[in-house]
Inverse folding.
């Protein structure tokens, strides 16, 4: 028992925990190699990190400060040795500086790009059709080889002729469609938006129809489709303004970046022969 008590006395005391509190910016939370490290210092360190790195720091701030102190110590040693002036380190440091400042300028430009409500409404009016959804029914005729494809094409043309002659679309769905999910719902299919990741010829066909109209058989890699447009659903400005604001701001910033990129004058010098 006595030896156990002696051993226990030799165990190192646990390190005190650091409580992160952004509301106390001047509070000193640690001494890192003899220099005071405050809550504000920690917050400034966090903003340079990814979400995963921030979570790691918050879960073990003591070890994070030890890593930070180690990096500073190693960097000071490297500078004393003149490594920051040597190749390729000098070039990499300069490229990192250029990259960081470019990212900062891009962020500042997006922040300073004012987008008044009336301007945003103008974008909505010009892009209104992008916020419409097509409610439709379909007939799907599948194929998996050339013979079946010819049969599906012929069947699609026959069904299209029947529709033009006045046949009921739902009745043809029930009799011929191979898509069981939509067939069980009288041919109803998930609404299609112009922004959907769907083949352009499909969207062009669907949005080229008027409510009540149907398409001819449209070939896709897995089968032939006949669409009937039931109606369009249009989202109002109020419904989309928040998403539209973000999308327009990002697009305007991308356009500005492209403008800056194309403004760079590059002349290729052809070596003399």
């Amino acid at each position: 028992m006595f030896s156990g008590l002696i051993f226990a006395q030799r165990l190192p005391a646990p390190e005190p925990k650091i409580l992160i509190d952004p509301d106390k910016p001047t509070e000193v939370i640690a001494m890192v190699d003899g220099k005071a490290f405050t809550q504000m210092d920690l917050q400034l360190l966090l903003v340079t990190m990814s979400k995963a790195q921030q979570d790691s720091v918050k879960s073990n701030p003591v070890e994070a400060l030890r890593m930070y102190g180690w990096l500073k110590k190693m960097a000071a040693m490297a500078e004393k040795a003149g490594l920051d002036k040597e190749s390729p380190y000098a070039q990499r440091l300069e490229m990192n500086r250029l990259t960081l400042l470019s990212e900062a300028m891009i962020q500042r430009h997006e922040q300073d790009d004012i987008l008044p409500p009336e301007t945003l409404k103008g974008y909505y009016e010009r892009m209104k059709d992008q916020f419409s959804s097509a409610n439709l029914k379909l007939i799907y005729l599948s194929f998996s080889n050339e013979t079946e494809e010819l049969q599906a094409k012929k069947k699609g043309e026959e069904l299209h002729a029947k529709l033009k002659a006045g046949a009921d679309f739902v009745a043809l769905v029930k009799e011929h469609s191979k898509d069981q999910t939509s067939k069980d719902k009288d041919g109803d299919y998930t609404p299609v938006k112009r922004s959907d990741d769907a083949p352009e010829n499909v969207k062009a066909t669907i949005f080229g129809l008027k409510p009540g109209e149907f398409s001819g058989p449209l070939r896709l890699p897995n089968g032939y489709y006949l669409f009937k447009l039931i109606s369009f659903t249009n989202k109002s400005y109020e419904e989309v303004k928040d998403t539209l604001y973000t999308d327009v701001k990002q697009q305007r910033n991308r356009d500005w970046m492209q403008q800056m990129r194309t403004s760079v004058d590059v002349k290729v010098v052809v070596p003399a022969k």
In short: The two ends are 92 Å apart (CA to CA). The chain is about 55% helix and 15% strand.
